[in-house]
Structures are given as C-alpha cells and as structure tokens.
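LAB NOTEBOOK - FOLDING QUEUE
OPERATOR: T.R.
BATCH SIZE: 2
PURPOSE: Compare the predicted structure-token outputs for two unrelated chains run back to back under identical settings.
PRIORITY: normal
REVIEWER: second-year student, initials M.K.

ITEM 1
FIELD SEQUENCE / FIELD STRUCTURE:
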Amino acid sequence: MKKQRIRPALIFKVFIALFMLAAVSLIIQNFVSRSRLKPRVPVVETEIAEQKVETTEEIHHFQLRRGKLDYEVRAARHYIGDDGLYHLEGDVQLKFPGRADGEDVVLTAGEIVHDRENAFFRMLGGAVLAAKDIRIEAESFEYQTEEERLLTDRPVKFTSERISGSAKEAVYRATNQRLILRNEVRLSFTTASDPSRPVQIEGNELDYLHSQGSGTIRGDARIHAGENFADASLIQFELFSNKENLRKVLMQGDVHLVTTSQDSSPSDPNSEEQAARPERRELRARKVMIRAWHNSQEIRSLEAEGKCYLRQDTAGGEFIETTADRLDIQFNHKGGMRTFHARGHVNMAEQREGESRTVRGGVLSIEGKKQILHVESSEESRARIRAGDYEIEADVLDIMLNSRNLEAAGEVNVIMTSQKAEAPAVGFFGGTDAIFVKAEEMRYSGKNRRFMFTGDVKVWQGKETMLTQEMTIFREGGNMVCREGVETHITVNPKGEEEYDLEIRADTLEYKPSSRRLTYSGDVIVKVEASELKADELIIRLSEEDNKIQTLLASGDVEVIRELYRAEGQKAVFNLEKETIQLSGNPVLTHQQKGRVQGDKLTFYLSDDRIIVENKGRERSETVIKKS
C-alpha cells in the first residue's frame, strides 16, 4: 500500500473553513438572541409600498440602553405600514421605567406608530399616559422619547388624586412632571378641608408642575370656589407639600377678587374679629397675593398693590370702602380680621350705625384685638377724618372702632359745622358759620359726644378768634368750656360803621347756646380801643336773631381804665350799640392828676370821651368831660 503524504496547504484550508463556520454560527446565535428582545424589520426601501408586509402577532418587546431596560412594549399586532413607520395595534401598552420622578411612565392606546429609531411614538385611538399619580387622556398624542415629552393638539383631560382638568392642547414632560395646557383650560382642585367645594381654575394657558404642586395660568385667568372668585391676567398657585390644600395664590393684571362669608353666626365681640364681620369682600388691584391656612380654605393673609380698591359689606347694609397703593391683611382661622394695613394715598369711607365717615392718610392700620384704626400722615397726605359735622386733620389719628372714641396728635386741625337747621349754633360768636380749631392734641368721646383739645389751642370763626390751653366742646347742645387761660378777639361794628376789636382774657370760659350766654371767670380783662375793664366774672349775652353780642355784664371788683381815668365798682354793663360802659355798686372815678369822684352810677361814653357820674341823693348829676 502506498503511503500518502500530508499536505500543509490542505490542512490550512480546512482550518479556515472550520473557523468561518464557527464565526457564522456565533453571529447567527447572537442574531437569534437579539431578535427575541426586539423584532428586527428589514430596511425599508423606496419600493416598500409595493411589497407585501408580514404581520407579527402578540408582540412583547424590550429595548435596552447601556445595559438597562429603556422601554417595554406589548401589542396584539406589529407591522410596517405603507407610510414606512412601525405600527403596533390592539391594546397597545408602552412602558418607560423610572422616567417620572423614579416611577414608570405607561402609555396605552388602540394603536401606536413609531419610527425606526424610536424617536417618537404616536398614540392613536383613546390614548392614555399614566405617570406616578397623574393620568392624561386624549384621542391621540405623540410621545417624543429623547425629550420625554408628550404633545397633542386634540382635546385632552388629565386627573390626579385631587386635581383634574381639560384643554384643547397639551404638552407634558415626564422627567419633571410639567404639564402645559392651552385653549379653554379648565382645572378643578378638591381640598381635603372642604371636598364639597372644589376650587375651579380657568384660562387660556396653564403651566403646571405636578411634582411641586404649583402652576401658572395666563390669559383671562379665573379661580373660583363656590361664590368666591378672582379674575386676573395671570394667576400663579402653589399647593401644600401634601397637596391637600392651596398654600398661596398670586394674581397679576387687573385683579378682581370677591369673597363671601360662609359662617353667618354672630361673631364674639371679645374675639379678634370685628363686631360686624363682613358678609362680602370685593378687591381690585394690579397684584394680589393670598396665603391660606394649612387645613382650611380660609384665607390667612392677603397682600395687594397697585391702585387697590377694597369694599367690605355686612348683612346689615353697612360697608367700608378703602383705596390705597398697597394693602396687607391678616386673618385668623375663622376668617376674622387680625390686622389690616393700608399704605400710600389711603382713603377709607365707612357707613356704620346710620353714620358715614371718611378717613385719609399715608398709612392706615387696624389691630384686631384692640380694634383701633390707626392713621399716620405722609409727605403726600396728612391723616384726616370727616364724620357728620366735623373734620379732623393731624399727624396721627387713633379711632376706637368699638367705642367710637377718637384721639388726634400733632398739629391737630378741626372744622365743625352745623348741618341741621334745628341744631344748636356751633360758634360762640357768629352762629352758624363753621368753627376752626388748632391744637397739639385732641380726644373725642363717642359716649359723651365730647371733644377735648389741649396744648396751644386756637379757635376761630370768621374774624373772631380764641386762644386757650384746654377746651371741651359738647356736640349735644353745643356747650363749650375753656380752662387754663383763655383769650378771645371779637370784631364788632354795632352801628355798621368802622369795626374795632374787642379783646377778652380770663382764666376760664363757658358757653351755653341754650341760654345764649358766654361766661368768663377769674382775672377777667376786657380791652376795647383805649379802654380796659377788669372783673372777677364777665357774662356776654347774644341776640336771638343772629347770635351777635348784645351786652357784656361784669361783676366782682370791677375796674375800668381809660387813659388817665380809673373807675372802680361792683358791676359794669358794656353796651356795644350805645358804645357805653356803665359802672354801678358805689363806683369811684379817679384821675391821676385831678383827684377822685364818687357816685351811684358812672358812665363812660366811648364815642366822644364823656364820663358822667350820677348821684341819686343830689339835685343834679356831676358830669365830667374829658378833653381829647
């Protein structure tokens, strides 16, 4: 037998063939293995529309990225359509694990269409996205995988544990759970404190961060709950961390807010609430911030700025209107006001207990417990109150709302008038003319209806003026009392000719309109032209027709001094019309150079400088003519 020789070239060829066979086997095995995770579809050629496409049934597919599950899809059928896109049909479910704050994003629809690179998934036929605790529904939408964003221009609805809404268009980002709704946006929020009264939000566009529980609504924005509502150009809201209640609401641009009281029970006068809690509040401003209590829909605080207008109405028909540049109001858990602050060009008009009053100032505040309305002046506006027949201006005003008492300090100015024809005369000189008062401080007692002025008090009415350190005026009856010294200046012209000034000084003054009488007491001094009268008491009687001075009656150690003459007696009558001073009570006339004369009655004639001394026991009176 012939021995065969081994050929090295043949062995090398066999080795190469085996190696290639093994490599092909590995490639086929790997291909088969990967095909089980993802159905591989032949590359779509331009002629694909003319080819017959196979349909794969009962698809369950996984996509890996960097060794981790990227998404999972289930469907009844899978094929490539005439449009060159991949189609999944029949109860399609697409899951992206951990995309929404660590939780899955699940898409379901009747059909899903996607491209070869899985850049987008179009959901058709009752599409639903579920991510964490939010659910979005639309007839169709598109999910873009790279941006993890959902888009739809079809009517859309979304729901979560407490929030639901609808719109014509929507954009949703799964990574930060941001939802943007556009066109005819409707949002409903059910609070844990009052599930029967959901908060409704409407507008043209809503930008809502579900993970943070905050959102912004623009364009004809409106928020309402029951009869409470607010309109604005923009509304921003924020929920508490547990998303059970609204934490705060910011409104901007022509804000209109209306709130009504849900509790009709009477308030406790000893509580922080006002005696008459408003049944309705209406606010208009450029910007409003509202904060709520944690477990209640009651407002905790309200801040407003920009041409603020606030009206508060009570069930009894009473109301308060306030305008200011800025408002800041704090409430308690029951909705009662704790503090109220208004700043910048403040005006407050109030109708209460049948009376109306207006308050102005630079700063206005109310403390709930004390119920004191505090008003301060600013460079633009002094503190001022007008009520009934008086108007008060000062650096600072304090109005006690429950007692109706009032205090004013710092350059106090007051105007008083008689608004009713049957009311007593305000003035102590001129009758019905307005009376003006200046003082350092003023207090008003609502119970006694009494004004008390202190510190360099100046009063004037027409041309008549009065100076004192302390003055009290009673609105009932018009009585007036001055203490700590008083000085009055009265302009008189009894014959309608040349006017002259009548100056009166004393320790006290009391005015009683009912008796038309002014009473000066203690070191009384009356000066008129060249004459001076001193007495212990002086009574001025006023006429009934025009409340003008008729006579002055002096008593108690009366003394009259005119140039070189000096007369003493017990009583004196000063007649303005006759221009005479008549002294009685054993009068004595003394001339510095000519000695003294005594009689029963002594009369000074101021017009022609005559002095007549009368004696009843003699045949004739002695007349003394004083030369000019």
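ITEM 2
FIELD SEQUENCE / FIELD STRUCTURE:
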Amino acid sequence: MTIAEDPATTNPGYKWVGTRPIRPDGFEKVTGRAKFGADLYLPGMLHGAVLRSPHAHAKILSIDTSEAEAMAGVKSVITGDDFPPAMGKEKDMASNTIARDKVLYEGHVVAAVAATSRAQARAALDAIKVTYEVLPHVLTVDQAMAAGAPVLHDGMLTKGSEPAATEPSNVASRVIYQGGDLDKGFAEADVVVEHEFTTKPVHQGYIEPHAAVADTTPDGRSTVWCSSQGHFAMRTYSAQVLGWDSGRIRVIPAEIGGGFGGKTVIYLEPLAIKLSQKAGRPVKIVMSRDEVFRATGPTSGSRMTAKIGATKDGKITAADVHLWFEAGAYAGSPVGAAAMCCLAPYKVENFTIEGFDVVVNKPRVAAYRAPGAPISGFAVESVMDEIAKSIGMDPIEFRLANVVEEGDTATYGPKFPRIGYKETLEAIKNHPNYQEPLGPNQGRGIAVGFWFNAGMNSSATVNVNEDGTVNVLTGSPDIGGSRASMALMAAEELGVDVARISPNVADTATVGFNDVTGGSRTTLATGGAVVNACRMIIEDLRGRAAKQWDVAADQVEWVDGQAQMVDGSQPPLSLADIAKGWARTGGPIAASASLNARGVGAGFSTQMCDLEVDPETGVVTIVRYTTAQDAGRAIHPSYVEGQFQGGVAQGIGWALNEEYVHNADGVMENAGFLDYRMPVASDLPMIDTVIVEVPNPGHPYGVRGVGEVGIVPPLAAVANAVDSATGKRICHLPLSPIRILDALLEG
C-alpha cells in the first residue's frame, strides 16, 4: 500500500523509478553462484585461526608461541608485537583488533595462526601459552560508574563533563541538549510520568559470519577479499592498524550475507594481511558463530530515565531524559545519536537530554540499524504512551497534537525541511488494522521513530558499451537492493530499458572512494553520484549528436533515450546509434562523478502492534503488525517494503527475546542461535506496510533513506501493547515470558 501526498507532484510520470524489476543479482544468489566472504579459494592458501582471551579483564604477562611455530603445517604466528604501537586516534581500533598489554573482554584477540589446514591451525592455538594476571571487571554501566570501580583505560577523562574531568574514569564522554525552562515546563503539566528503563546488548544477527582472505606479496602490497559494508573503510582501517599507506591495499568486495551496521568494523582483515605477509602465501580466516557473538560488536546495553509532563489536553510541556549506554571495552557507544533522536518527533519547548558513554568489559559495540535510537525510543515512547492513557487521549491523536512539521526546530538543533511524519501518523490512524477489535488478553501498542539519515561521500562511474548497453560502477556494497535502485535511476535518467543497465559493485582500485553502506545513505548519496554521472553522459551524447548533425549542442535535446533536434529536422539518434559510431565522435563514452551528499532527508515511522499475552505462561504472540514510513520516493517499492519489514522483525526480536547473557566472570553464556533467540518466520505474522511518499527536496528523485528508522518504534510498540494487554508497564527488555509472568503474578 502506498500513500502519496499529491499524485500530481509525487509521481510525475516516471517510467522506471517506482517499478519492481527482478533484482540484478537475484539469479546468482538463488542459484548459489554468488561469492560470499568464505567462498574464495586461492592456490596455496593457508587457513587462519584466532586465539581469544578467556577472561573479561586481564594483564598479558607473556605470550609463548614457540611450540606453535614448530608444529607441522604452521606457517606463521602473530601477536600484538607484530604490529606498530597502537597510538593516536586509531589506538582503540588497533587495540581492539589485537590486544597489546591487556585484554578487555572475553573473546579479545591475543594471537593468530596460519597453517595448511584448519585442524592444524586450531591445534596450534592450543599450543600457544599465555600468562595472564586476572583483573576485576565491570559488566554494566552501574558497576562501571560505581565508586572504586576498576578503570579500564588509565588515561580516559570524560569529554564534555561539567566541571572538566581531572581523574580517569569509565565514563568516556557526556553529551547534552537543552532548551527552555525545565522547572517551568513541569509546573505547567497536569500529568507527569517518570520511569527508569534498562536494555541488554543485542547482536545484529547477520547470517554470514565475518570472513577475510588476504594475499600479501613480496612487494609489500596486499589484496584482500572480504564481506563488509564498506571495502574502502576496510582498506583505510587496515592500513591504519598496520601502519601502511592505504594505497598498498586493494580490497575486493565479496557479497554480503547481512550486516545491519555490524560489518562496518575491521576484525580479521589486518590479521589476515599480516599472517599472509609472514607466510608469503594467501591466508583465509572465517569466524565461527561463537566468535561472532563473543568478539564482534553488539549494540549497547543501557540504563535510562525519562520524565515527561503534559497538559490534560495533550500538550507536552517538559521532558527530562538521561541515558547511560554501554560502549563495550572502548569508547564509542551510539548514545549521541540516541540523544539526537529520542525527542525529535515532538515539539517540546522545555527539555534536557543528557547521555553518557560508558566503557565496560564486553565487546566493543558496533552500529545496529539507527544505532542508539531504538533504545532511547523505547524509554520515551513508553512514557508517551502512558501519558496518553493518563489523560484519556488516543495515542495517535496525542502524537498528532505534538507533531513536528516543516520549519520546526528539532531538539538536537536543525530546522526540519519538508518531512512526512504527520502523514505516517495519519496512515496508521486510517488503516483498517487500527479499527480491528481486540480479543481477550490482547493489546494494541503505538510508537513512532525518527532517524536523521546520512549523506557522506560517494563516487560512481557510468560506461556506455558499443552496443548501447550501460555499465554502472559504484563502491557501495549491495545489502538491501542498491544495485537495483542504481539501475532504475540510471535507466530513468538515460531513458533506456532497465534491462540494458548492468550495475556493479567495484573494488577499491576500480572506482572512486565510497563511504560505507550504512546510515541509510546509499540510495541517496551513491544514487546521487550515479544520477550526476548519467547527466554528464547525456551532455556528452547531445554534443556527439550535434557533431553528427553539424549543429550547436543547444539545438539538441535528450528525450526518451534518444537525441533529437529541437525543431525535429533530423531523425532521432538512440543511445545505441551514438555508441555504435563513437570512434567518429570522440571515442568511448564514460563519465565519473563524486560528491559529498547534502540535502539528506530525515526519516519517520509510525507503527502499530497487536499482540496476545498468554496469562499462564507469559508468552507473547504477535497478532498483527502495521508500519507506515516516509520513503520520500520508493525507487523500488518491493525493496522499500522489505526494509520496513526487516526493521520490524529485528525490533520485535529485540523487544521480546534477544539479550546477551554473561555470568559473574564476564563470560557470555548464550553465544549461539540456539540460546540467543532471534525470531524466525513462524514467530511473526505478515507485516503490513504503508509506503508514504513525501519527496525529499534534497535529492533528484526525492529519496529518503529507509533502512534504519523502521527498527526504532518496535521496542516501544511491543512494550505498549503488552501494557495494553496486561495492565503492566514493564520497563526492562527483553519482555521474555519469565519477565511478563513475574509482572502478572506481582502482588
């Protein structure tokens, strides 16, 4: 289902944009021909394995690799001593890749081995002798911030603290947004609701584990094949860890079996490069699922407080939100983004949003779809729901009474351009599912979400072949169907059949720099580069046609895939016609474009969850789920709907089941899909989608990123529906059967 603001302006007769062709890489993927990270085999290739810390926090007193190095089949062994000292702004990344003086979480890399077989490599790991001095550890923000807590980093002073920090602590930074007069705002409120919330770390849950192959040659260069969300980033980060110029590394992207933000970080690539350099042979390293859970970035666990006041007619008067986010072993939680997003959907004159980035002895966190926003959204949207119930107001009407619109200033600073938030609220309000009656033990929850989306840097090259077909080269790995969106925009620009466009993800030596596929930036930014390159091609084609007709270029226009005289005095020339004779008009036809994308369009989503709670077991069954989201323009509606549904599915899992479980020693106890419970198809109904299209004026086709905001509302929508079904406000995730049953039996 699609809702357009005004069909005359939002669907201006596009031929290809907005259609649903089969994805260009679909055949290779469904037949198993596509090559993922672990699929590459090179002659003489060795197998790598990684030794990881069994301790959450410990000094490394010594590492003896001599026995391992002497074993049959072992060709190279590395430790932190094989890398340059970890210094400067890259210190944390380098130390996380391989530990130096101490380990900071269970699973932290200590050493790595390359051998002629996997079995030999694993046996060599057992022969490495590491002597540790075990140190006290902290696993939660409260433990990390307690008086006398062990400090993970001796030189860490809290950035942004007031007054300025003078003593090291586990609080890496503080962020704050403020406006108005908080005391005045709460004094004007007829109802004030305040709760404390907690969430646990959860993993992105991508199906393909991390994998990398490196072939380092005697000339000091290395070619790397890896599955990532950004092979240019993998090149840059690997070079920084190794102390190399980035030009020494060529990264060839494999297909990616899911990332969701978790594959924007290096883990294996520098290890494989260094092992290959020492052995003089290619090396492949593939993580096990256990390693993925123990040693790659989940998103943060958190503690939060949210206090919000409103008048009896539904006007929000004040909001006071405080966030403490686990960063894992190194600074860098998404608490800043969480603070930006949590109140952004609302007009709030008087507010304080304060966030703290806190290091703990767990794996360093990584991005996970709209990083930080689902967590803070859980707190704020839960309180908003309770306020609406307290004043007897429909939850959608309450949000409509406080909706931000074009020209309003967001709580984190900028003014909103044209946005489609109000339209998403109205889409859910008018959806048939919102009128469906609820049965016994059933509840309905509403929640909204915001994500600011990203622009960043992209490049693209467009080559016209001699038969008039077109190759589009970008450096953005295809995660959610971006090959298709690039082809559709190129087809629309050039006026040719989309089947004649071949979109390709090129390596770091073939196309200009591209930032990662993340931040909901790819269709907007890389698509913008493709559009610009196509428009350069069109100018070239007009000039070539003018040369053939011996007229000025301004007498030629490009219409429906062909050059034609403005006065119609010549038979049109198609792209294929001009390409066929390129030798007479200037040679091959190609253009490259690069940009730092501006005009990013913010994303909003409104979602409704209907569920049923079994009062005897606490088990939750999702009955209906409906999501409405502003896509700006749905370039390929099927993939847009898929992004909506994927975000909801992951958010439901986060709300109901998923969590990292650590024992008292800081060891993860559920590092596998059997014990880390993600939703499967049988756990979910069909998720109904409404594509709202309020075009983003900053993009040629009105695109807004759609990959992230969809995961923001589900945590609160599910919690609000559980409250509706049970009358119990549960402020701690996950809403597992045990937690719900405890609430039902309370008292």
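REVIEWER COMMENT (ITEM 2): Residues 1-13+419-453+600-747 form a domain with the Aldehyde Oxidoreductase; domain 4 fold (CATH 3.30.365.10).
FOLLOW-UP: none requested
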